[in-house]
Amino acid sequence: MRITFWQPALCGAVVAAALLYDGSPAKAHHAFGSEFDANSPVLLKGKIAKIEWVNPHTWIHIEIKKDDGAKEIWMVEGGSPNTLLRRGANKNTFPEGTEVVVDGYQARDHNEKRANARNVTFADGRKLFLGMTGTGAPDPEKFDADKAKTLNKDK
Questions:
Q1: 80 CA to centre of own chain
Q2: Fewest Cβ atoms nearer than 10 Å: which of 6, 26, 37, 82?
Q3: Residue 139 is part of which domain span?
């Protein structure tokens, strides 16, 4: 059997790839600005309808009562479960029916009822930072509540 120049090179590349592979799935992540609008802050006031404690992001579903009495559900993206665990939260921190105020940023598509959370504030005054840092997210210290569109169940 005659060995060509490409066979050892190909074999070496396969061995190198196998040695570098750590067994974990490929990780892809979106930048904040690809999905959310930093110029559209929102304040969502309502009750937790559901929590999704899943990777790569947690999702809190909040029932908002509109001015006309109609209800709508907003999906609010939070940090990863691991990030929230490090901040002292777990899925039991968000029981269904709990009154909350979430400040964050609306999805780029304003027809969607989705937002990226910055903070969640509970009725007893506890505040938990849910947001992301990096990936283009706005500075968590610079949320302008005066410019936020408020969606309130108490209107």
A1: 7
A2: 26
A3: 35-152
